[in-house]
């Protein structure tokens, strides 16, 4: 295929696709990226990570000014929510991020093609434009990075007005009186926190008997307790069986997950946040013979090759955690392998963060996983109540927990609930990536007074020798 227009055509400009396109261009490939959205950056920059964090930060500041500054001796009065200003902040943050990707494409000479891509055959992508016209683009390699879409819930039809997905929940017209969130996972808790801080009564309904079901059990229990204290109501082991929009409200029908008497709940807005599913519609995968798994995710090998030569896939559209930085790592490896280099991802070293207050962050194995795998481990835990910096910040809720191999002391997992947990977890990701022991962590000097001293103390607690506890 010496006369193809490009060496690589990427379909989808989310964090997986745009990062792969840039990395491939850096490696000397001629690269195009087909994206059907008018702006680049995918779910993450447009309707995911970035706008949700903009609202989380803004609502946190509002809540701090309204309820928490007094405890620091800072008197504020007349604190008011400027709803339009809050939404403007979010929109501007999104705009500056998506235009940043435009700039990076230009800088790296990635050709941007606006339209919906489908694969006609290995080496040929058919792009359908908004006006219905089509264009064929040829390339040695095609990388599918089409991401994911909202998972629907039978009986609960999303209209993005009264019954919203995360996309609608980022763009409500006003603070709802009662917001019911279906799903106690990361997205539900983050967006539930935003609206709760802004004044809504928030109820989270979760099918399982715990929130944050993939996190370490102790962390999920503690976070439920803290969010409960903040005012969020939880209805666990409960399933939603239907929703009816009536005038300005929604009536939800719920029943115990194991079956039993049904009851109804009135809401002003219902957020469906039960997960996301891979976006493979209209890509022509069946016709070209690209294999999917039982959950319609594209199957790949560890270098992100599908079963069809020259077609690759990364990010939310393949198996694994649906996280922007996981998609980015995969994009880099795919591009480097295409360029003849080698690549490897240590999935145990990929962090997961919930950007609530306090934050929840995790890397590697949970206690439940280690028990299930029969791995002998030692746990070291340190609470923020005993950390000087946390006390000075009035942020003493939560703890750091480190799990290390009982024989070798190698760090196998780490879990934090506390202020800045999302920043602090990086030290522990590095520990997992480098195969560090808990002793390596506590022999490393940590600045005083910092929250990271709680990490050092938790590492010392693994060896049964914390100083400040
Ligand atoms: P996407 O970002 O979904 O991008 C795929 C792109 O492909 C889209 O722009 C889509 O328009 C385009 N596309 C699809 N099909 C076609 C086609 N046929 N032709 C052309 N274009 C196509 N992750 C985190 O790590 N941290 C967070 O804080 C975080 N917060 C989130 C908050 C919310 C509310 C949501 C919804 C998600 C959040 N995520 C977060 C998850 C994160 O957004 C995804 O994991 C990430 O965007 C996946 O990247 P991707 O490149 O695989 O796909």
Structural account:
- This protein is of the alpha/beta class.
- It folds into 3 domains: 5-150 and 277-345, FAD/NAD(P)-binding domain, CATH 3.50.50; 163-274, FAD/NAD(P)-binding domain (3-Layer(bba) Sandwich); 349-462, Enolase-like, domain 1 (2-Layer Sandwich), CATH 3.30.390.30.
- The chain is built from 14 helices and 22 strands.
- It has helices spanning 15-26, 42-47, 49-68, 83-107, 166-169, 186-197, 217-230, 285-288, 324-338, 367-372, 388-392, 421-433, 438-442, 453-462, and strands at 6-11, 31-35, 111-114, 116-121, 124-128, 134-144, 148-150, 163-164, 178-182, 201-205, 233-235, 238-246, 249-256, 263-267, 269-272, 276-278, 311-313, 352-354, 359-364, 377-383, 399-405, 411-418.
- The strands form 5 sheets. Strands 1, 2, 3, 4, 5, 6 and 17 form a 7-stranded mixed β-sheet that branches. It has a 5-stranded parallel β-sheet with strand order 8-15-9-10-11. Strands 18-19-22-21-20 form a 5-stranded antiparallel β-sheet, with helices on both faces.
- A hairpin with a 5-residue loop joins strand 5 (124-128) and strand 6.
- Helix 3 (49-68) runs antiparallel to helix 4.
- It is globular, with a radius of gyration of 24 Å.
- It binds flavin-adenine dinucleotide (FAD).
């Amino acid at each position: 295929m010496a006369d193809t227009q490009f060496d690589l055509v990427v379909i989808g400009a989310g964090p997986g696709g745009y990062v792969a396109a840039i990395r491939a261009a850096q490696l000397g490939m001629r690269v195009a990226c087909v994206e059907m959205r008018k702006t680049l950056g995918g779910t993450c920059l447009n309707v995911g990570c970035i706008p949700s964090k903009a609202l989380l930060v803004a609502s946190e500041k509002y809540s701090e000014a309204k309820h928490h500054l007094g405890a620091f001796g800072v008197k504020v009065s007349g604190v008011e929510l400027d709803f339009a200003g809050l939404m403007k902040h979010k929109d501007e943050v999104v705009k500056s991020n998506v235009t940043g990707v435009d700039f990076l494409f230009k800088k790296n000479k990635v050709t941007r093609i606006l339209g919906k891509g489908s694969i006609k055959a290995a080496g040929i992508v058919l792009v359908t434009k908004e006006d219905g016209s089509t264009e064929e683009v040829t390339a040695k390699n095609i990388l599918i990075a089409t991401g994911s879409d909202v998972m629907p819930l039978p009986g609960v039809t999303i209209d993005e007005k009264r019954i919203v997905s995360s996309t609608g929940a980022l763009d409500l017209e006003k603070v709802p009186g009662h917001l019911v969130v279906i799903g106690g996972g990361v997205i539900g808790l983050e967006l539930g926190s935003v609206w709760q801080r802004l004044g809504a009564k928030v109820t989270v309904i979760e099918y399982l008997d715990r929130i944050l079901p993939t996190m370490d059990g102790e962390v999920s229990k503690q976070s439920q307790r803290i969010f409960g204290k903040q005012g969020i109501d939880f209805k666990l082991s409960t399933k939603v069986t239907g929703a009816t929009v009536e005038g300005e409200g929604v009536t939800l029908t719920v029943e115990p997950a194991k079956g039993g008497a049904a009851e109804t709940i009135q809401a002003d807005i219902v957020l469906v946040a039960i997960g996301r599913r891979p976006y493979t519609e209209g890509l022509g995968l069946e016709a070209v013979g690209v294999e999917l798994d039982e959950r319609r995710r594209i199957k790949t090998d560890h270098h992100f090759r599908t079963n069809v030569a020259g077609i690759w896939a990364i990010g939310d559209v393949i198996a694994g955690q649906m996280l922007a930085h996981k998609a980015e790592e995969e994009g880099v490896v795919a591009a480097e392998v295409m360029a003849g280099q080698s690549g490897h991802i240590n999935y145990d070293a990929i962090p997961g963060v919930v950007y609530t207050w306090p934050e929840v962050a995790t890397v590697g194995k949970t206690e439940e996983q280690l028990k299930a795998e029969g791995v002998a481990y030692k746990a070291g835990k340190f609470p923020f109540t005993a950390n000087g910096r946390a006390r000075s910040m009035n942020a003493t809720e939560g703890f750091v927990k480190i799990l290390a191999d009982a024989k070798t002391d190698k760090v196998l997992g780490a879990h934090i609930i506390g202020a800045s947990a999302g920043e602090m977890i990086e030290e522990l990701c590095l520990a997992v990536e480098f195969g560090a022991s808990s002793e390596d962590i506590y022999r490393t000097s940590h600045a005083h007074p910092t929250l990271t001293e709680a990490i050092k103390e938790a590492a010392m607690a693994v060896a049964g020798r914390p100083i400040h506890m």
